[in-house]
Structures are given as structure tokens and as C-alpha cells.
DNA sequence: TTACTACATGGTGTTCACTCAAAGTCAATA
DNA sequence: TATTGACTTTGAGTGAACACCATGTAGTAA
């Protein structure tokens, strides 16, 4: 697959895909003899995984570290697991915060609804 | 209350509090004759509200708009409600995305656990 | 009066995560 | 053959949201 196809498929710009590869967020993508990127299953898998993690706000830096460990092979399994657990903790916390705000927004909206109803019945 | 007390109370820097006021994220705070900020109940309420909304990632821009509408009085109630509903929609979506990632992380971690167990029993 | 502290303003710097521009290569098409 | 269009790299630029700094002043303690 070309970069434009991957860009299309996952809804990311080509610039972002090149950037991800450049900084090590995605292991280096295979090339055609001309030097043009030719994404295979493996690379696509990484793209999809990183997109998912980034969409949840995991920092680029941390994901780079994860990819780096992954490339070092099975001896880094414990470190990778640790990294994932730490990130999940942060994520859990952020979700909890967001749910609190969600509830607060809901109640504020309900309040506006009530005001409207009061206005109508007056 | 002084800015340092408010900063302490809500866990935000004085710089952030001044920044929020400057860009209109918080209605202007009353001052002592000397020009020093003297936060009252009302201002503290805004600080707390904005901190909550920001912690969930609502954009500064949108919150500025909300404050602007609020200051225009009751004729903007409908607009404010609309704004809150839109932001809640975005938040709901964002939370759903993050929960998907949360589940994915959990499963990945479980996978590492399984590998360990396999290694132990071998 | 001097010293000290907390505050003020205005302007610049930083970080994160891209995003774009410039200049060049390569393959296919008119 | 010439041109078009997609791709390449390197490096600089952008925007959001603060963080930091220099300089100045009000209020208080010794």
C-alpha cells in the first residue's frame, strides 16, 4: 500500500504518517526500490494501533518508548507490560475526570431545560 | 481571597489564573484599590467551573464563548444551552473512544499476563 | 527609612504534536 | 520528450495553552 492509501484508510495525513515514522512511533516502513513507502500488514497494524492510542491521548513520547522496547525483542516484555499498565492507570484517571465533567454538563443542561419549562408554565 | 490563595485552593498557578482572566475564560475579578485581585464567591465559582471543564479537555475557545454569552445575560440562555449540548456530545464521543482504548490496553496487558503464566507453567 | 514580600503588567519562551515549504527524484502518461 | 503528479528528505513554521522573566508598585515590619 502507498502512503496515500494508508492515509485514506486510517484518516491521517501523509505528513503525520511520515512524522510518526521519523520519530519512531511506527517501525520503519518497507520501501520499493525507488524509495517509496510500501506499507505491509505489519506496518498497517502499527499505524492502526498508534492511531487508537493517540486518539485516547497517550503521549507520543511514551508510545515511541513502547515501539523501541518492542523492537528490542522478547527480553523487554516485562518493561512493555509495565509501561502499558502505567498508561492504563493514567487513562483510567482521565476517563474518571471526564465522566465527572460529563455528569456536570448533563446537570447544567437539565437545569436549562427546567428553566424553559418554568418559563412555559408561567 | 488573594490570587495565591485561589491558586492554592484549586491547584492552578497564578500565571494560569491571570491568563484565564486575560483571555476571558473567567469574568474579570474584582480588585482592591491598589489593583490587587480580590476573588469573591462568584469568581471562585468560575475558577472551579473552568478548571473542571478544562480538565475534561473542553477547548479554551469554546469556554470563552460560553463566558461571553453568560455575561450578555438571560437572552443568551438558548445559545448557552446549545453550546453545552454540543460540547457534551463531543465529550460523550471522546469518552467512548477512550473507553475503547482502555479496553484494548486491558486486553493487551492480560495478554502479557497470559504469556507470563505460560512461561511459569512450562 | 530601609527591607521585604506579594502582587501587577507586558512581553518572551517552552512544549507538544503536528504541518508546511522547498527542492529534488521517479514513474507513468500525452 | 516533456510534463504531470506522487513521492522523497530536511528543516522550518504553527497553534494551543500555558510558563517564565523583567520591571515596577503597594503594603507591612523593623
From TrEMBL, chains A, B:
Entry-linked Pfam families: MerR_1
SMART domains for this protein: HTH_MERR (SM00422)
Keywords of the record: Coiled coil, DNA-binding
Secretion signal span: none
Coiled coil: 81-108
GO MF entries: DNA binding
All residue ranges annotated as the HTH merR-type domain in the record: 1-69
Family annotation (InterPro entries): DNA-bd_dom_put_sf (IPR009061), MerR-type_HTH_dom (IPR000551), MerR_fam (IPR047057)
PROSITE patterns: HTH_MERR_2 (PS50937)
Protein name from the UniProt record: DNA-binding transcriptional MerR regulator
Originating organism: Pectinatus haikarae
Amino acid at each position: 500500500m502507498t502512503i496515500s492509501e494508508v492515509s485514506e484508510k486510517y484518516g491521517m495525513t501523509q505528513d503525520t504518517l511520515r512524522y510518526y515514522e521519523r520519530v519512531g512511533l511506527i517501525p520503519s516502513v518497507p520501501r520499493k526500490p525507488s524509495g517509496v513507502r510500501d506499507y505491509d500488514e505489519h506496518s498497517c497494524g502499527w499505524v492502526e494501533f498508534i492511531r487508537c492510542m493517540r486518539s485516547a491521548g497517550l503521549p507520543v513520547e511514551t508510545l515511541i518508548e513502547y515501539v523501541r522496547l518492542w523492537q528490542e525483542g522478547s527480553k523487554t516484555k516485562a518493561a512493555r507490560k509495565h509501561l502499558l499498565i502505567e498508561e492504563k492507570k493514567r487513562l483510567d484517571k482521565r476517563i474518571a475526570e471526564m465522566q465527572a465533567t460529563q455528569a456536570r454538563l448533563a446537570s447544567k443542561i437539565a437545569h436549562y431545560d427546567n428553566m424553559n419549562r418554568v418559563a412555559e408554565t408561567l
